[in-house]
Design goal:
Radius of gyration: 22 Å
Strand order of the largest sheet: 8-11-9-10-12
Number of strands: 19
Distance between the termini: 56 Å
Order of helices and strands: EEEHEHEHEEHEEEHEHHHEEHEEEEEEH
Strand content: 15-25%
Largest sheet: 5 strands, mixed, barrel
Structural class: alpha/beta
Shape: globular
C-alpha cells in the first residue's frame, strides 16, 4: 500500500495542494542518464525491480489521478480518498478496498509505505521480510526502524526493548515506546537507548485493521466507507492506531534512508545544482537553484542556499532552515483564502444591492 496523498508544503513553492511533492521531477534517473524523475517514479521503478509492483495499490486523491497515470501508467490500482483526511482514514479505506472489493483474505499481510522514502534497493528485502516477521512474532504491527546516523530533531523515534546490533533482516525486537521529534539532547539519549528513526513503513495482518474498524463501528463495505469518509477522524495512523497498540515489533535497517520532505534533504540527492534559467558565481557553495519561470535568477557569493522559483512564488532560504517554509506557506494560503472569501462576500452584497 503506497501512500501518495500528501501535498508536501515543505517543498513550496514548487509543491502545494494542486501539485504534490512526489510528482516533482528533480531526482536523477538510474535508467536514463541526464534525465530526471519524480519520487513516485523512482519508488515505482524499485517496486518493479523487486517484483512488488504487481501487488501494490496506491492510496491517493482524485486530483492526482492524471499525474499518477502520466508518470507510472494507467494500470496501477488506485484507491481514491473522497477528501484529504490524513493517513488513518487513507489506510482504513485502502484496507477495506482490499477486503471488500478485491476479496483479500484477513490473514494476508499488508505493508504500508510512504511515497517519499529515498532508499537503495536492498531496503526492499526488509520490506519483503515483514511478512515473515509478522508471522513469526505474532505481533499486531511490525515496523522498520532506521539506525540513526546523527541526533535528528526532525524524525520520530522507535525505542526497542533491547539494543540489538544484528544486521540480519529477520531480527526484530518488541517496541518499548515512541518519541516524536525530540530535542537534540533527547535525540542523543534516544540513540543511547538504541532508538531508531521511524521510516513510516509497517506491516499488519488485514484482520488487524478490520477488527479495529469494527470496534469503531465503521462500515466494512468499501462504498459505505466512502460515504462515511468525511466523518472519519482526520488523524495520522501513528496517533490513531500505532500509539494505542501494545503488541508491536521493529526491525532495524542499517542502510541509507532519507525522508525527502524538505529542500535540505531533497537537494542532497539531486545531481544538478541548477535546473532552469539562472546562474551562480564560482564562490557559491552548496547552492541549488530550481527555476520554473522564464526569467533569470542570479546568486552571487552565497552558500548553503536553496532558491526555488515557480508561478506560486519565490523561496530563498538557508537549507537547514528550509523546513520552516511550511509555516509561511500555510499563512500565505490562509490569507489567500480569507481574501477570496472577502471578495466573494463583497460580490454577494453587491449583487444583493443590485437586486434590491
Amino acid at each position: 500500500m503506497l501512500l501518495s496523498g500528501g501535498s508536501g508544503k515543505r517543498l513550496w513553492p514548487l509543491s502545494d495542494d494542486s501539485r504534490s511533492k512526489q510528482f516533482l521531477k528533480l531526482l536523477p534517473s538510474d535508467q536514463k542518464p541526464n534525465q530526471h524523475i519524480s519520487m513516485l517514479q523512482r519508488i515505482w521503478q524499485q517496486l518493479q525491480r523487486v517484483n512488488l509492483a504487481e501487488s501494490t495499490v496506491v492510496s491517493t486523491s482524485k486530483s492526482q489521478i492524471d499525474m499518477i497515470h502520466s508518470q507510472i501508467g494507467t494500470s496501477v490500482p488506485l484507491v481514491l480518498e473522497p477528501s484529504r483526511r490524513d493517513t488513518f482514514p487513507a489506510i482504513a479505506l485502502s484496507s477495506i478496498y482490499l477486503y471488500s472489493m478485491k476479496d483479500v483474505k484477513q490473514e494476508e499481510i499488508v505493508v504500508v509505505m510512504p511515497v517519499d522514502s529515498f532508499v537503495k534497493d536492498d531496503f526492499f528485502h526488509y520490506v519483503k521480510a515483514l511478512e515473515k516477521v509478522v508471522q513469526d512474532s505474532n505481533a499486531d504491527l511490525s515496523l522498520i526502524g532506521i539506525k540513526p546516523t546523527f541526533p535528528s530533531e526532525k524524525y520520530g523515534y522507535i525505542v526497542p526493548s533491547a539494543i540489538n546490533e544484528a544486521k540480519h533482516e529477520k531480527i526484530f525486537q518488541p517496541v518499548r515506546y515512541f518519541k516524536e521529534k525530540p530535542t537534540v539532547e533527547q535525540a542523543k539519549q534516544l540513540m543511547f537507548e538504541g532508538g531508531l528513526w521511524n521510516s513510516g513503513v509497517f506491516a499488519f495482518k488485514l484482520s488487524f485493521i478490520i477488527n479495529s474498524l469494527k470496534e469503531r463501528g465503521l462500515p466494512l463495505n468499501y462504498f459505505d466507507l466512502v460515504k462515511a469518509y468525511a466523518g472519519l477522524p482526520a488523524r495520522s495512523f501513528d496517533y490513531e492506531v500505532v500509539e494505542k497498540t501494545k503488541n508491536i515489533v521493529v526491525s532495524a535497517y542499517h542502510g541509507e534512508w532519507k525522508d525527502l520532505g524538505t529542500w535540505n534533504t531533497l537537494t542532497e540527492e539531486m545531481d544538478a545544482a541548477l535546473i532552469g534559467k539562472g546562474t551562480m558565481s564560482s564562490d557559491c557553495k552548496n547552492v541549488h537553484i530550481i527555476n520554473e519561470l522564464d526569467i533569470p535568477v542570479f546568486v552571487i557569493g552565497l552558500s548553503d542556499l536553496i532558491v526555488a522559483v515557480s508561478p506560486n512564488g519565490i523561496l530563498v532560504s538557508d537549507k537547514k532552515e528550509s523546513s520552516r517554509v511550511k509555516e509561511i506557506a500555510n499563512q500565505f494560503e490562509n490569507r489567500a483564502e480569507d481574501m477570496e472569501a472577502h471578495c466573494n462576500h463583497s460580490t454577494e452584497r453587491k449583487e444583493g444591492n443590485e437586486n434590491d
